[in-house]
Specification:
Blueprint (H helix, E strand, L loop, with lengths): L1 H36 L3 H14 L4 H11 L4 H14 L4 H13 L3 H14 L4 H14 L2 H14 L5 H12 L3 H13 L5 H13 L7 H8 L5 H17 L3 H14 L6 H14 L22 E7 L5 H9 L4 E3 L5 H9 L10 H13 L9 E4 L8 H7 L4 E6 L2 H9 L13 H21 L4 E5 H6 L1 H12 L22 H4 L15 H4 L5
Parallel strand pairs: 1-3, 1-4, 2-3, 4-5
């Protein structure tokens, strides 16, 4: 009897503690909402942060904190959403929030897991199929994306998004006419959703009918206020004007599209960051370097080949050329290098590198690439990896680097005209693009003078004018035998998921040389 009484008493205490925790959580959430209603976002974040420190199992506080931090501190937001999932593994909202955060940061690969988990829990909800399909399409897994959209079409026969998804897949895989035919009925019925208009206009342009969407896009843009829709529609309108050589109208459309989104990039701060790298990794720092070419690489399998440069400088084309070689595994654009540098060497300082951390960095980086046994090299072509070359040179045995360069005006305007979504904010302002290009060039010049790793420069204009000569030099640099297949990268079945997907699906050509020439009157002042 005494034991039963004691047990009953303990249960009572537990119940009271549970009620007390629930009351405390409710008060914290109410307090945070009150702060938000007064416009005090920082105060709300402080209240919620204190709440999760007191009670790490409070799912609602973690979720609310993550949503407040999404745009300002993605790292802390990710931690908050991961805490939601740890505490409540079946939280669909937590899984989707974490996945969307990965998508916003360009980590499409990391979004697949949580979205798949959310779909397993809600397989009959059309939205789950759309989310997973969109993520797979961004990752270039078009067959799986198509399956998701077809399932969504079955579950939501009157919705527009499955047709948009299917049309996008068709356009990206070389069937723009079919993409256009999928969306034409929606346009004819008066559907004016931004995603429908963007997909239809892009399909028209790729199908050789760029003039067709101009009037409708121009009319619709004048009637909408939502910033993201204006940005997306403005970019595709600019593409259509550009295709029909209406240069002034095209530039105006691109400018309006870029102005619709915030440009928070600080070119001065980035310049200081590059200054610090140059100073830290100076010629006096050679004692920090090891000669990676002398390290035994057999046990590591394929050797890493970084392809770096400014976006739109030819990195995708170079990787597609190399992917035609049997000894090369094309890894595509990955954030792995930057993530590991920020984890192991957050100060970007050579003095932080020791053998233990270098080995762990190397092992995690190499393990992230599942290369076939036949591969001698694997490529990693995230353009911005140029900032990480100091750490990579110290940590990765057998490393080689390809630096892609292109006329600075052509590079800048190609970036300005490209819709990068929420990424690469410096591409939204011409002065920021000019500054970024200068910083990239001087940092690469510095790396070439101090790093003990081979760096080969590929000039885009030379590559497309004299492809055989340049590709022979490229393969010789990589230590690979000549193969004719590299002259025809357009024959590769490999899907390119970057902004250059249309260009690399065609035979190499010189039409993109002088891309910026019709727009020089608007560019020159920012590049003086």
């Amino acid at each position: 009897m005494a034991k039963r009484g004691a047990s009953h008493t303990n249960r009572g205490h537990t119940s009271r503690r549970g009620r007390s925790r629930s009351v405390s959580q409710t008060k914290a959430l109410a307090h945070a909402r009150a702060r938000l209603n007064r416009g005090d976002t920082a105060g709300a974040i402080e209240v919620l942060s204190a709440a999760v420190r007191r009670d790490p199992t409070c799912v609602a506080a973690h979720e609310a904190l993550g949503r407040l931090l999404e745009s300002t501190d993605p790292g802390r937001a990710r931690t908050a959403f991961e805490a939601v999932i740890r505490t409540c593994r079946d939280s669909v909202r937590g899984q989707v929030a974490l996945a969307k955060l990965h998508l916003l940061s360009g980590r499409h690969d990391l979004a697949i897991g949580p979205l798949s988990q959310a779909l397993r829990q809600e397989p009959e909800k059309p939205l789950r199929w759309q989310e997973l399909g969109d993520a797979l399409a961004l990752l270039g897994e078009f067959d799986r994306a198509r399956d998701c959209y077809e399932r969504g079409r079955f579950l939501a026969p009157n919705a527009s998004w499955p047709l948009v998804g299917l049309a996008t897949v068709c356009e990206r895989t070389g069937e723009p006419a079919h993409a256009r035919s999928l969306l034409e009925p929606l346009i004819n019925r008066g559907c004016r959703e931004a995603r429908v208009l963007v997909a239809w206009a892009r399909a028209c342009r790729r199908a050789g009918r760029p003039d067709e969407p101009i009037a409708l896009l121009t009319e619709h843009l004048s009637a909408i206020d939502e910033a993201e829709a204006r940005a997306r529609l403005g970019h595709v309108l600019g593409e259509c004007f550009d295709a029909v050589q209406q240069w002034a109208e095209a530039f105006q459309a691109f400018q309006a599209a870029n102005n619709a989104r915030p440009a928070t990039y600080d070119k001065g701060e980035y310049g200081k960051f590059v200054d610090a790298l140059v100073q830290s990794w100076s010629s006096d720092a050679n004692s920090f370097f090891t000669d990676a070419s002398n390290v035994q690489t057999e046990r590591f399998g394929a050797r890493p080949l970084l392809i770096v440069g400014m976006p739109r400088s030819g990195t995708s084309l170079v990787e597609q050329i190399l992917s035609a070689h049997d000894a090369v595994y094309a890894g595509g654009e990955r954030e792995t290098m930057g993530d590991l540098v920020r984890e192991f060497f957050p100060r970007y300082a050579p003095s932080d590198i020791d053998s233990a951390r270098a080995a762990e960095f190397r092992d995690q980086y190499l393990a992230s690439f599942e290369t076939p046994d036949s591969a001698q090299l694997f490529t990693d072509k995230l353009p911005d990896n140029y900032v990480h070359l100091g750490m990579a040179a110290q940590c990765l045995p057998g490393l080689r680097v390809i630096h892609c360069r292109r006329d600075r005006y052509d590079t800048a305007f190609s970036c300005y005209a490209q819709d990068f979504g929420s990424r690469l904010r410096y591409t939204r302002r011409l002065d920021a693009l000019a500054a970024r290009g200068r910083d990239e060039e001087r940092l690469m010049d510095h790396w070439k003078s101090v790093l003990p790793v081979p760096i080969h420069t590929v000039q885009y204009e030379s590559l497309v004018r004299e492809p055989e000569r340049e590709i022979r030099a490229l393969l010789e640099f990589c230590g690979l035998p000549w193969t004719e297949a590299c002259l025809h990268p357009e024959h590769q079945k490999r899907v390119v998921a970057t902004a250059s997907y249309a260009q690399v699906s065609q035979p190499m050509h010189t039409r993109s040389i002088g891309r910026a020439r019709p727009y020089m009157q608007w560019l020159e002042s920012d590049f003086d």
